[in-house]
Predict the 3D structure of the following.
Amino acid sequence: KEVTGKVARISDFGAHLKLEGDVPAFIPLRNLADGHVESAEDVVQIGSIVTAIVTDVKKDHMSVDLSLKMDDFKKEPSAWDRPSSLPAVDLAFDLNAARNIESQKSKARQERIAAALSSVSGGDAQMTDANTARSRKVTRRACVHPAFRNAKNAEIEKELKDGGEGMVGEALIRPSSKVADSLAVHWLVRKNVIKVVEVTEEDKDNDASIGNTLKIKDEVYGSIDEMLARYIAPMNDRVEELIAHRKFLNKSQNDIDNQLRDMKRRTPNGVFYFLCWNEKYPGYASLRFICNSTPRYHHIGITPEGFAWYQKTYPNLDVLLNSFKNNPQGPANVKSSSMHSSSSASQSSMRTSQRPGESSSSRPSRWGAKSQGQPPIPTHQPPPPPPGNPGGWGAAQPVAGGVGGGANSPPLPPAGQYGRPAPPSLPPPPQHSYPPAPPGGYRQ
């Protein structure tokens, strides 16, 4: 198998590399070239990106041996000795069919190599010297990576779509036709649906080489293999999670909207939602829901880190759906809705506050007319009772249910008229007999 790694150290016995996932690799001096090599520095340098063939896997040392010999690249996979650590080949294995497939892949690879070499040796490249000034033009690349194609957009899409279900999740790379120093990654999200991702190249040796640094937005990758492993592979895992989710329906958006309407008609108080593919934007899902009578939707992005909803990325779909249930309108409307609520509350407080000089009964209520069950409270005091007959201290004061005990005192209102029970009646004054006052009154 071909792998790509970066030269980390050079010793007297060969070159030490770091593969994807920091897997150590080693290229012996005898495998650096087809001819004799005195020093590894004659072939590779520290920091160089090389693509080599795996010749041996050392499980005990967690390392692999590589080779740069052209004879090893041309050797068919079936010609290699099977490692003793692997189980024996099944007796029903069709060896002839496997060899035919290997032959076809090898032929296609040789054609790509020939096309890459011809583009470098002639045409617009003009790269006779490695230090030639960069032209900054869109040119063909001298890259033999299995996923790279010096082809046009239509050719890449045709190759991916013709592969059928077997190509789903695969990605092919080509030079971008928009700007120089950029690549276009064509990712087959699902059958007949392709998402194109722009990749910026930095630290290029020449126009025909692949940049030593590849950037997708803010993420940096050191090689094509690293980009496929850290960007495409995680998004394929997200696609599998989406398809396996309990709320995912492999239907069109119109069919799901009609289903939501039927469910809402049967259960008016319910809120229903489903996930499906976004038909407008490749590589996106659609979260469709219904609260009132009209179905609505949100765009859900698929990223290597998780699922993106508005400006936030969630690690899985369940966390995203929980956030959606708390605020179906989306995180972007949380601030505006809270401001609207506070404004409404302040306006309501201003409406309910009583203005000076304005009685509460004169203002109409927003909830309808006020109840007329209670009469208004009188604002004037009852007239004082007329003076009684002078009778001295021993005169009895008849009580007629009044508070002051006078004969002409107004009667008490019935219980409950002012919203509270009537006070209890006072007991009659005590009946005492005192001697009449002497003439001239008492001496001071």
Summary: The radius of gyration is 46 Å. The first strand starts at residue 2 and ends at 11.
